[in-house]
Amino acid sequence: MPPSLPRLDVRGLVRAPLDPSRPGLSVQVAAGTCLALLGNRAADLSCLLDTLAGHLPAVAGSIAVDGQDVTALPPGRRGMGLFSVRDPLFAHLTVRQNLAFPLAARGMSRPQAAARVREIMALLGLDGQASRRPADLDAEQAWRVRLGRLLAFAPPVLLLDDPFAALEPEGRRAMRTLLSRLARAQGLTVLLATRDREDALLLGERIGFLSGGTLLQTGTAAELFDRPACDRVATGFGDANSLTGRVEWVEDDQARVRLASGAVMEAMAAEGLEADALCTLCVRPDRIATLFPAGFSAGPFHGRDAADGGDGDVPATLVAVHHMGDHVRLRLRLPDGQEVLVRRPPIQTLAGLSPGRRALLAWQPAHAVAFPFRGELV
């Protein structure tokens, strides 16, 4: 395989049922890397991986593994293995027999299969579980066996369908660490579909963000956080606050925006932003500075008070304060009723911070992005 050729190359894939408003999906996964697809609907993720694996038909597009078009091939000949909690272990077989099953199905001799099973059990820490049946395993042990059943026949591409969904938080962390270690040690090529952002951040060298089955952006975590392609990526992936405003001017890559609350702020201008048009200004909670001036009385802003901050400051009223351990979460309400979340380091003093306290919010223009308004409030 040429070094520049992706191990998995999906181009213009359209899956059933056909949705004319949804563009075809194109992704590439280099050998030995993990691409994490982060979505908000389990059904969309499962349907996509089932289509790639060949369990559902593709309406259009192509799927190639190591340069070979596998779009029309049956599941067993595509060079892909699918891990899904929808595929349970065989209850009547032991761990050893469960691991050997895919090898026997592919015609491997018994001695070869036995050697490969021993290798997989050692790799996954299952040596002491070989004679046990699935009913006797805990959730983490069963997860290891399901992964081992997939690794046993060493498919070029692993498709992981929300693999940690059935695990408790502690088990999720442990199995995520195990998978990460195995992926590095074995040079695995992985397409991970998940609804958990932490899974995507910890396992994916690159991340694709989906909304409603549509791939909105693919890139590194830093690119999705700092240079989101649209407001849906900014809010859905980066947890950004979304504020409606009108563009006063656009110059180069910077814009001046008058928010619905009356405050005037600057932000980076996204492609397509035009002066005197509605926009959606997105700014992440950890990029907002908060000031609680001693001279501000308690209570919400009214009338001319709403302009007290002037250009570059947004007047707000504190609604709630929560200490989250690694950060302090502040919820504030703007004069027009929109609410903003702010995250501050836990070293910030909470003395005197109670609901009703007035504040000024500010951010650097480079830390906010103004996107063309999509015709809906988000």
Automatic annotation (TrEMBL):
PROSITE patterns: ABC_TRANSPORTER_2. It comes from Gluconacetobacter johannae. Residues 5-237 form the ABC transporter domain. One of its GO terms (cellular component) is ATP-binding cassette (ABC) transporter complex. It holds the Pfam family ABC_tran. This is ABC transporter ATP-binding protein. PANTHER family: SPERMIDINE/PUTRESCINE IMPORT ATP-BINDING PROTEIN POTA, SPERMIDINE_PUTRESCINE IMPORT ATP-BINDING PROTEIN POTA. It comes from the Bacteria. Keywords: ATP-binding, Nucleotide-binding, Transport. GO terms for molecular function: ATP binding; ATP hydrolysis activity; transmembrane transporter activity.
